[in-house]
Design a protein that fits this description.
Layout: H1 2-22, H2 28-64, H3 81-114, E1 119-122, E2 128-131, H4 133-138, H5 143-148, H6 150-162, E3 166-172, E4 178-186, E5 197-203, H7 205-224, H8 226-240, H9 247-279, E6 288-289, H10 291-301, H11 303-309, E7 312-317, E8 324-325, H12 328-345, E9 351-358, E10 370-376, H13 399-404, H14 411-421, E11 425-431, E12 435-443, H15 447-454
Parallel strand pairs: 7-9
Antiparallel strand pairs: 1-2, 1-5, 3-4, 4-5, 6-8, 9-10, 10-12, 11-12
Length: 455
Protein backbone atom coordinates (compact mmCIF):
# COMPACT_ATOMS: atom_id res chain seq x y z
CA UNK A 1 0.00 0.00 0.00
CA UNK A 2 2.79 2.43 0.94
CA UNK A 3 4.69 1.57 -2.29
CA UNK A 4 1.60 2.33 -4.36
CA UNK A 5 1.12 5.69 -2.62
CA UNK A 6 4.80 6.61 -3.10
CA UNK A 7 4.64 5.64 -6.77
CA UNK A 8 1.55 7.75 -7.35
CA UNK A 9 3.11 10.77 -5.66
CA UNK A 10 6.52 10.55 -7.40
CA UNK A 11 5.33 9.47 -10.85
CA UNK A 12 4.43 12.90 -12.26
CA UNK A 13 7.55 14.88 -11.17
CA UNK A 14 9.92 12.02 -12.02
CA UNK A 15 8.39 11.59 -15.49
CA UNK A 16 8.59 15.33 -16.12
CA UNK A 17 12.23 15.57 -15.05
CA UNK A 18 13.13 12.50 -17.10
CA UNK A 19 11.59 14.03 -20.25
CA UNK A 20 13.43 17.29 -19.65
CA UNK A 21 16.73 15.44 -19.25
CA UNK A 22 16.21 13.23 -22.34
CA UNK A 23 15.44 16.13 -24.65
CA UNK A 24 18.25 18.14 -23.08
CA UNK A 25 15.81 20.86 -21.96
CA UNK A 26 17.48 20.57 -18.54
CA UNK A 27 20.96 19.69 -17.38
CA UNK A 28 21.39 15.95 -16.76
CA UNK A 29 22.84 15.93 -13.25
CA UNK A 30 20.47 18.48 -11.72
CA UNK A 31 17.57 16.57 -13.29
CA UNK A 32 18.78 13.28 -11.80
CA UNK A 33 19.22 14.96 -8.40
CA UNK A 34 15.67 16.34 -8.59
CA UNK A 35 14.36 12.89 -9.51
CA UNK A 36 16.11 11.33 -6.49
CA UNK A 37 14.77 14.01 -4.15
CA UNK A 38 11.21 13.53 -5.51
CA UNK A 39 11.42 9.77 -4.91
CA UNK A 40 12.74 10.24 -1.34
CA UNK A 41 10.06 12.78 -0.47
CA UNK A 42 7.30 10.60 -1.90
CA UNK A 43 8.60 7.60 0.09
CA UNK A 44 8.80 9.62 3.31
CA UNK A 45 5.27 10.92 2.81
CA UNK A 46 4.01 7.40 2.11
CA UNK A 47 5.63 6.08 5.30
CA UNK A 48 4.12 8.82 7.48
CA UNK A 49 0.72 8.49 5.80
CA UNK A 50 0.80 4.69 6.19
CA UNK A 51 1.68 4.95 9.90
CA UNK A 52 -1.18 7.40 10.51
CA UNK A 53 -3.53 5.12 8.59
CA UNK A 54 -2.53 2.11 10.72
CA UNK A 55 -3.20 4.14 13.87
CA UNK A 56 -6.63 5.16 12.62
CA UNK A 57 -7.49 1.59 11.61
CA UNK A 58 -6.56 0.43 15.11
CA UNK A 59 -8.80 3.10 16.62
CA UNK A 60 -11.70 2.10 14.38
CA UNK A 61 -11.32 -1.53 15.41
CA UNK A 62 -11.35 -0.52 19.08
CA UNK A 63 -14.51 1.51 18.53
CA UNK A 64 -16.13 -1.51 16.83
CA UNK A 65 -15.14 -3.81 19.72
CA UNK A 66 -17.88 -4.55 22.29
CA UNK A 67 -15.63 -3.69 25.23
CA UNK A 68 -14.29 -0.42 23.79
CA UNK A 69 -14.17 2.58 26.10
CA UNK A 70 -13.41 6.22 25.33
CA UNK A 71 -10.32 6.47 23.09
CA UNK A 72 -7.26 8.58 23.85
CA UNK A 73 -6.42 11.32 21.38
CA UNK A 74 -4.01 10.36 18.61
CA UNK A 75 -1.15 12.68 19.61
CA UNK A 76 1.29 10.89 17.26
CA UNK A 77 -0.81 11.43 14.15
CA UNK A 78 0.90 13.87 11.82
CA UNK A 79 -1.06 14.04 8.60
CA UNK A 80 -4.46 12.95 10.02
CA UNK A 81 -4.59 14.84 13.30
CA UNK A 82 -7.99 16.40 12.68
CA UNK A 83 -9.50 13.07 11.63
CA UNK A 84 -8.07 11.46 14.78
CA UNK A 85 -9.63 14.21 16.90
CA UNK A 86 -13.05 13.60 15.34
CA UNK A 87 -12.71 9.85 15.90
CA UNK A 88 -11.90 10.55 19.55
CA UNK A 89 -15.13 12.54 19.90
CA UNK A 90 -17.05 9.78 18.14
CA UNK A 91 -15.63 7.14 20.50
CA UNK A 92 -16.68 9.18 23.55
CA UNK A 93 -20.21 9.47 22.23
CA UNK A 94 -20.38 5.75 21.50
CA UNK A 95 -18.97 4.93 24.96
CA UNK A 96 -21.64 7.12 26.61
CA UNK A 97 -24.35 5.50 24.50
CA UNK A 98 -23.07 2.01 25.29
CA UNK A 99 -22.95 2.78 29.02
CA UNK A 100 -26.51 4.13 28.87
CA UNK A 101 -27.71 1.02 27.04
CA UNK A 102 -26.01 -1.20 29.62
CA UNK A 103 -27.64 0.81 32.39
CA UNK A 104 -31.05 0.37 30.76
CA UNK A 105 -30.37 -3.34 30.35
CA UNK A 106 -29.49 -3.70 34.03
CA UNK A 107 -32.54 -1.67 35.06
CA UNK A 108 -34.72 -3.85 32.84
CA UNK A 109 -33.31 -7.01 34.40
CA UNK A 110 -33.61 -5.61 37.93
CA UNK A 111 -37.24 -4.58 37.45
CA UNK A 112 -38.24 -7.99 36.13
CA UNK A 113 -36.23 -9.76 38.83
CA UNK A 114 -37.93 -7.84 41.65
CA UNK A 115 -41.50 -8.10 40.42
CA UNK A 116 -43.58 -10.01 43.00
CA UNK A 117 -45.45 -12.03 40.36
CA UNK A 118 -43.78 -14.78 38.33
CA UNK A 119 -42.63 -13.44 34.93
CA UNK A 120 -41.21 -15.54 32.07
CA UNK A 121 -39.43 -13.91 29.11
CA UNK A 122 -39.65 -15.64 25.73
CA UNK A 123 -38.00 -14.91 22.40
CA UNK A 124 -39.86 -14.70 19.10
CA UNK A 125 -39.33 -18.43 18.52
CA UNK A 126 -40.95 -19.15 21.94
CA UNK A 127 -37.68 -20.27 23.53
CA UNK A 128 -37.13 -19.37 27.18
CA UNK A 129 -34.89 -16.35 27.68
CA UNK A 130 -35.14 -15.98 31.43
CA UNK A 131 -37.46 -16.19 34.43
CA UNK A 132 -37.48 -13.84 37.40
CA UNK A 133 -36.91 -14.84 41.01
CA UNK A 134 -40.64 -15.17 41.74
CA UNK A 135 -41.06 -17.58 38.81
CA UNK A 136 -38.05 -19.66 39.82
CA UNK A 137 -39.22 -19.83 43.42
CA UNK A 138 -42.90 -20.53 42.75
CA UNK A 139 -42.64 -22.83 39.73
CA UNK A 140 -39.10 -24.25 39.60
CA UNK A 141 -39.50 -27.59 37.77
CA UNK A 142 -43.06 -26.68 36.69
CA UNK A 143 -41.89 -23.98 34.24
CA UNK A 144 -41.77 -26.34 31.21
CA UNK A 145 -45.24 -27.65 32.09
CA UNK A 146 -46.62 -24.10 32.16
CA UNK A 147 -45.11 -23.23 28.77
CA UNK A 148 -46.39 -26.50 27.25
CA UNK A 149 -49.92 -25.92 28.52
CA UNK A 150 -52.34 -25.66 25.56
CA UNK A 151 -53.93 -22.50 26.97
CA UNK A 152 -50.58 -20.72 27.31
CA UNK A 153 -49.40 -21.85 23.88
CA UNK A 154 -52.64 -20.59 22.34
CA UNK A 155 -52.28 -17.23 24.10
CA UNK A 156 -48.68 -16.92 22.84
CA UNK A 157 -49.79 -17.63 19.25
CA UNK A 158 -52.56 -15.03 19.50
CA UNK A 159 -50.22 -12.45 21.03
CA UNK A 160 -47.70 -12.89 18.21
CA UNK A 161 -50.42 -12.72 15.56
CA UNK A 162 -52.27 -9.67 16.92
CA UNK A 163 -49.44 -7.91 18.82
CA UNK A 164 -51.88 -7.49 21.72
CA UNK A 165 -51.98 -8.94 25.24
CA UNK A 166 -53.71 -12.29 25.59
CA UNK A 167 -54.79 -14.29 28.66
CA UNK A 168 -55.26 -17.94 29.55
CA UNK A 169 -56.19 -20.01 32.60
CA UNK A 170 -53.73 -22.75 33.56
CA UNK A 171 -54.62 -25.66 35.82
CA UNK A 172 -51.67 -27.84 36.84
CA UNK A 173 -52.56 -31.23 38.31
CA UNK A 174 -49.14 -32.36 39.56
CA UNK A 175 -47.30 -32.47 41.85
CA UNK A 176 -50.13 -30.56 43.58
CA UNK A 177 -53.17 -28.86 42.00
CA UNK A 178 -52.40 -25.25 41.08
CA UNK A 179 -54.65 -22.64 39.51
CA UNK A 180 -52.75 -19.99 37.52
CA UNK A 181 -53.84 -17.06 35.35
CA UNK A 182 -51.38 -16.29 32.55
CA UNK A 183 -51.16 -12.97 30.67
CA UNK A 184 -48.98 -12.92 27.54
CA UNK A 185 -47.70 -9.42 26.72
CA UNK A 186 -45.88 -8.80 23.38
CA UNK A 187 -42.91 -6.41 23.56
CA UNK A 188 -42.40 -4.07 20.61
CA UNK A 189 -39.58 -3.17 20.39
CA UNK A 190 -38.07 -6.28 22.02
CA UNK A 191 -36.16 -6.21 25.30
CA UNK A 192 -32.41 -5.74 25.32
CA UNK A 193 -31.77 -9.50 25.46
CA UNK A 194 -34.11 -10.22 22.55
CA UNK A 195 -37.11 -11.10 24.67
CA UNK A 196 -40.30 -10.40 22.71
CA UNK A 197 -42.96 -11.94 24.96
CA UNK A 198 -43.64 -11.59 28.68
CA UNK A 199 -45.71 -14.32 30.33
CA UNK A 200 -47.01 -12.88 33.61
CA UNK A 201 -48.47 -15.49 35.97
CA UNK A 202 -50.92 -14.86 38.78
CA UNK A 203 -51.37 -17.71 41.28
CA UNK A 204 -55.03 -18.02 42.19
CA UNK A 205 -54.67 -21.32 44.00
CA UNK A 206 -55.11 -19.76 47.43
CA UNK A 207 -58.27 -17.86 46.47
CA UNK A 208 -59.84 -20.95 44.91
CA UNK A 209 -58.78 -23.01 47.94
CA UNK A 210 -60.44 -20.50 50.28
CA UNK A 211 -63.67 -20.75 48.31
CA UNK A 212 -63.53 -24.55 48.32
CA UNK A 213 -62.55 -24.59 51.98
CA UNK A 214 -65.63 -22.63 52.96
CA UNK A 215 -67.91 -24.96 51.05
CA UNK A 216 -66.18 -28.09 52.38
CA UNK A 217 -66.08 -26.77 55.92
CA UNK A 218 -69.82 -26.12 55.99
CA UNK A 219 -70.58 -29.50 54.42
CA UNK A 220 -68.22 -31.43 56.68
CA UNK A 221 -69.22 -29.66 59.87
CA UNK A 222 -72.93 -30.04 59.18
CA UNK A 223 -72.42 -33.77 58.59
CA UNK A 224 -69.86 -34.77 61.21
CA UNK A 225 -71.11 -32.58 64.07
CA UNK A 226 -74.71 -33.70 63.71
CA UNK A 227 -74.27 -36.90 65.76
CA UNK A 228 -72.43 -35.42 68.78
CA UNK A 229 -74.73 -32.40 68.77
CA UNK A 230 -77.78 -34.66 68.74
CA UNK A 231 -76.29 -36.64 71.67
CA UNK A 232 -75.63 -33.47 73.65
CA UNK A 233 -79.13 -32.14 73.06
CA UNK A 234 -80.62 -35.48 74.06
CA UNK A 235 -78.61 -35.70 77.28
CA UNK A 236 -79.42 -32.10 78.19
CA UNK A 237 -83.14 -32.84 77.81
CA UNK A 238 -82.72 -35.97 79.90
CA UNK A 239 -80.89 -34.07 82.65
CA UNK A 240 -83.61 -31.43 82.69
CA UNK A 241 -86.35 -34.05 82.77
CA UNK A 242 -86.22 -37.68 83.97
CA UNK A 243 -82.71 -37.45 85.43
CA UNK A 244 -83.22 -34.11 87.20
CA UNK A 245 -83.26 -35.82 90.61
CA UNK A 246 -80.96 -38.77 89.82
CA UNK A 247 -77.33 -37.87 90.78
CA UNK A 248 -75.77 -41.17 89.58
CA UNK A 249 -77.43 -40.78 86.17
CA UNK A 250 -76.38 -37.14 86.05
CA UNK A 251 -72.72 -38.06 86.58
CA UNK A 252 -72.90 -40.75 83.90
CA UNK A 253 -74.59 -38.47 81.38
CA UNK A 254 -72.23 -35.57 82.10
CA UNK A 255 -69.25 -37.83 81.46
CA UNK A 256 -70.73 -38.83 78.11
CA UNK A 257 -71.46 -35.18 77.29
CA UNK A 258 -67.86 -34.23 78.12
CA UNK A 259 -66.64 -37.00 75.81
CA UNK A 260 -68.88 -35.80 72.98
CA UNK A 261 -67.76 -32.19 73.53
CA UNK A 262 -64.11 -33.26 73.37
CA UNK A 263 -64.84 -35.14 70.16
CA UNK A 264 -66.41 -32.04 68.63
CA UNK A 265 -63.41 -29.96 69.72
CA UNK A 266 -60.96 -32.44 68.12
CA UNK A 267 -63.03 -32.49 64.96
CA UNK A 268 -63.05 -28.70 64.61
CA UNK A 269 -59.32 -28.50 65.36
CA UNK A 270 -58.55 -31.07 62.67
CA UNK A 271 -60.81 -29.35 60.14
CA UNK A 272 -59.14 -25.99 60.76
CA UNK A 273 -55.70 -27.59 60.57
CA UNK A 274 -56.57 -29.29 57.28
CA UNK A 275 -57.90 -26.02 55.85
CA UNK A 276 -54.73 -24.14 56.78
CA UNK A 277 -52.58 -26.82 55.16
CA UNK A 278 -54.62 -26.75 51.94
CA UNK A 279 -54.15 -22.97 51.67
CA UNK A 280 -50.37 -23.34 51.42
CA UNK A 281 -50.18 -26.76 49.75
CA UNK A 282 -49.11 -25.24 46.40
CA UNK A 283 -46.14 -23.43 48.02
CA UNK A 284 -43.29 -25.84 48.72
CA UNK A 285 -41.32 -25.11 51.94
CA UNK A 286 -37.80 -23.74 51.60
CA UNK A 287 -36.30 -24.07 55.10
CA UNK A 288 -33.71 -26.79 55.84
CA UNK A 289 -34.82 -29.30 58.46
CA UNK A 290 -32.77 -31.62 60.69
CA UNK A 291 -35.01 -34.66 61.01
CA UNK A 292 -32.92 -36.60 63.52
CA UNK A 293 -33.44 -34.11 66.34
CA UNK A 294 -37.17 -33.80 65.54
CA UNK A 295 -37.64 -37.58 65.50
CA UNK A 296 -36.12 -38.09 68.93
CA UNK A 297 -38.09 -35.18 70.39
CA UNK A 298 -41.40 -36.55 69.09
CA UNK A 299 -40.60 -40.06 70.33
CA UNK A 300 -39.82 -38.72 73.80
CA UNK A 301 -43.16 -36.90 73.88
CA UNK A 302 -45.04 -40.18 73.37
CA UNK A 303 -43.39 -41.96 76.33
CA UNK A 304 -46.28 -41.43 78.83
CA UNK A 305 -48.90 -42.76 76.42
CA UNK A 306 -46.70 -45.69 75.47
CA UNK A 307 -46.36 -46.68 79.12
CA UNK A 308 -50.14 -46.58 79.56
CA UNK A 309 -50.58 -49.12 76.75
CA UNK A 310 -47.40 -51.01 77.66
CA UNK A 311 -46.18 -50.50 74.09
CA UNK A 312 -42.51 -50.32 73.20
CA UNK A 313 -41.41 -47.81 70.55
CA UNK A 314 -38.30 -48.87 68.63
CA UNK A 315 -36.67 -45.86 66.98
CA UNK A 316 -34.04 -46.41 64.30
CA UNK A 317 -32.45 -43.37 62.62
CA UNK A 318 -29.62 -43.63 60.07
CA UNK A 319 -26.35 -41.97 60.97
CA UNK A 320 -25.49 -38.83 58.95
CA UNK A 321 -29.10 -38.38 57.85
CA UNK A 322 -29.16 -35.81 55.00
CA UNK A 323 -30.91 -32.49 55.42
CA UNK A 324 -34.39 -32.17 53.92
CA UNK A 325 -36.35 -29.07 52.96
CA UNK A 326 -39.41 -28.88 55.16
CA UNK A 327 -41.72 -27.12 57.57
CA UNK A 328 -40.74 -28.32 61.05
CA UNK A 329 -44.23 -27.80 62.52
CA UNK A 330 -45.95 -29.68 59.71
CA UNK A 331 -43.49 -32.59 59.75
CA UNK A 332 -43.99 -32.75 63.52
CA UNK A 333 -47.75 -32.92 62.85
CA UNK A 334 -47.19 -35.79 60.42
CA UNK A 335 -45.15 -37.71 62.99
CA UNK A 336 -47.77 -36.92 65.66
CA UNK A 337 -50.57 -38.33 63.51
CA UNK A 338 -48.67 -41.45 62.42
CA UNK A 339 -47.51 -42.31 65.93
CA UNK A 340 -50.96 -41.53 67.29
CA UNK A 341 -52.60 -43.87 64.74
CA UNK A 342 -50.03 -46.60 65.45
CA UNK A 343 -50.75 -46.33 69.15
CA UNK A 344 -54.55 -46.18 68.76
CA UNK A 345 -54.92 -49.06 66.34
CA UNK A 346 -51.96 -51.20 67.42
CA UNK A 347 -52.23 -53.85 70.09
CA UNK A 348 -51.39 -53.49 73.77
CA UNK A 349 -48.09 -54.96 74.97
CA UNK A 350 -46.81 -54.79 71.40
CA UNK A 351 -43.96 -53.08 69.59
CA UNK A 352 -44.24 -50.07 67.33
CA UNK A 353 -41.28 -49.12 65.13
CA UNK A 354 -40.21 -45.76 63.76
CA UNK A 355 -37.59 -46.11 61.00
CA UNK A 356 -35.94 -43.09 59.39
CA UNK A 357 -33.26 -43.57 56.74
CA UNK A 358 -31.98 -42.79 53.30
CA UNK A 359 -34.28 -44.05 50.55
CA UNK A 360 -32.89 -47.09 48.77
CA UNK A 361 -33.28 -47.35 44.97
CA UNK A 362 -36.54 -49.16 44.37
CA UNK A 363 -39.61 -49.01 42.15
CA UNK A 364 -41.71 -47.57 44.93
CA UNK A 365 -39.68 -44.38 45.43
CA UNK A 366 -38.39 -41.71 42.99
CA UNK A 367 -34.82 -41.95 41.72
CA UNK A 368 -33.94 -38.58 43.28
CA UNK A 369 -32.14 -38.53 46.66
CA UNK A 370 -34.59 -38.73 49.53
CA UNK A 371 -35.29 -40.07 52.99
CA UNK A 372 -38.06 -42.41 54.17
CA UNK A 373 -39.98 -42.22 57.45
CA UNK A 374 -41.85 -45.43 58.24
CA UNK A 375 -44.14 -46.16 61.21
CA UNK A 376 -45.15 -49.81 61.73
CA UNK A 377 -47.63 -51.16 64.25
CA UNK A 378 -48.73 -54.70 65.18
CA UNK A 379 -52.45 -54.04 65.01
CA UNK A 380 -55.29 -55.85 63.28
CA UNK A 381 -54.33 -54.52 59.88
CA UNK A 382 -56.49 -53.01 57.15
CA UNK A 383 -58.39 -54.86 54.40
CA UNK A 384 -56.88 -54.33 50.96
CA UNK A 385 -60.07 -52.86 49.54
CA UNK A 386 -59.93 -50.06 52.12
CA UNK A 387 -56.30 -49.03 51.54
CA UNK A 388 -56.91 -46.68 48.55
CA UNK A 389 -59.51 -44.68 50.51
CA UNK A 390 -57.66 -44.18 53.78
CA UNK A 391 -56.61 -40.62 52.97
CA UNK A 392 -60.14 -39.48 52.19
CA UNK A 393 -61.74 -37.13 54.66
CA UNK A 394 -63.76 -38.89 57.37
CA UNK A 395 -63.18 -42.33 55.85
CA UNK A 396 -62.98 -44.93 58.62
CA UNK A 397 -62.41 -48.66 58.27
CA UNK A 398 -64.07 -49.39 61.64
CA UNK A 399 -66.25 -46.42 62.58
CA UNK A 400 -67.15 -47.81 65.99
CA UNK A 401 -63.54 -48.35 67.05
CA UNK A 402 -62.48 -45.03 65.53
CA UNK A 403 -65.02 -43.16 67.62
CA UNK A 404 -64.08 -45.16 70.71
CA UNK A 405 -60.38 -44.21 70.48
CA UNK A 406 -61.10 -40.59 69.61
CA UNK A 407 -60.41 -40.65 65.88
CA UNK A 408 -61.85 -37.95 63.62
CA UNK A 409 -61.14 -39.55 60.25
CA UNK A 410 -58.95 -36.62 59.23
CA UNK A 411 -55.48 -37.69 60.41
CA UNK A 412 -54.29 -39.35 57.21
CA UNK A 413 -55.94 -36.68 55.06
CA UNK A 414 -53.82 -34.11 56.91
CA UNK A 415 -50.73 -36.28 56.42
CA UNK A 416 -51.42 -36.59 52.68
CA UNK A 417 -51.74 -32.83 52.14
CA UNK A 418 -48.60 -32.07 54.16
CA UNK A 419 -46.64 -34.66 52.17
CA UNK A 420 -47.97 -33.15 48.93
CA UNK A 421 -46.80 -29.71 50.01
CA UNK A 422 -43.32 -31.13 50.67
CA UNK A 423 -43.36 -32.75 47.20
CA UNK A 424 -43.08 -36.17 48.81
CA UNK A 425 -44.93 -39.46 48.52
CA UNK A 426 -47.13 -41.45 50.90
CA UNK A 427 -47.39 -45.24 50.92
CA UNK A 428 -49.65 -47.36 53.16
CA UNK A 429 -49.06 -51.12 53.37
CA UNK A 430 -51.04 -53.50 55.56
CA UNK A 431 -51.88 -57.15 56.11
CA UNK A 432 -54.81 -58.22 58.21
CA UNK A 433 -53.78 -59.61 61.61
CA UNK A 434 -50.18 -58.57 60.87
CA UNK A 435 -50.13 -54.80 61.20
CA UNK A 436 -49.79 -51.65 59.14
CA UNK A 437 -46.81 -49.66 57.84
CA UNK A 438 -47.20 -46.04 56.77
CA UNK A 439 -44.14 -44.74 54.85
CA UNK A 440 -43.34 -41.20 53.74
CA UNK A 441 -40.68 -40.23 51.20
CA UNK A 442 -39.29 -36.69 51.39
CA UNK A 443 -36.75 -35.18 48.94
CA UNK A 444 -33.29 -34.22 50.17
CA UNK A 445 -32.55 -30.50 50.27
CA UNK A 446 -30.79 -29.14 47.19
CA UNK A 447 -27.30 -27.68 47.26
CA UNK A 448 -28.50 -24.07 47.61
CA UNK A 449 -30.55 -24.92 50.68
CA UNK A 450 -27.67 -26.79 52.29
CA UNK A 451 -25.36 -23.85 51.61
CA UNK A 452 -27.83 -21.46 53.23
CA UNK A 453 -27.99 -23.69 56.27
CA UNK A 454 -24.19 -23.77 56.52
CA UNK A 455 -24.00 -19.97 56.37
Amino acid sequence: MRLLVATCLAAAPVATLAILAVFRWAALWPALAAIAISILLAGAFALVWGRDLDLLIGQVRRIAADDAGPLARLESAVLMDRLGHEMERLSRRLAIRTALQEQHRRADTLILERLPDPVIVLSHDRSLRRANAAARSALDDDLPAVLRHPGVRGAIDRALATNQSQAAEVLLRAPVPRDLYATVVPMDPPLADGGQLLVVLSDRTRERAVEQMRADFVANVSHELRTPLASLIGFVETLRGPAADDPPAQQRFLAIMAEQGARMNRLIDDLLSLSRIELTEHQAPSDPLDLAELIHRMAAGFEPRLRQRNVKLAVRVDDDLPVVTGDADQIAQVLQNLLDNGLKYGRDDGVMTLDVGVARPANRWPSRPGIVIAVTDQGAGIPKQDLPRLTERFYRVDKGRSHAVGGTGLGLAIVKHIVNRHRGQLLIESEEAQGTTVSIWLPVANAATRLAEAD
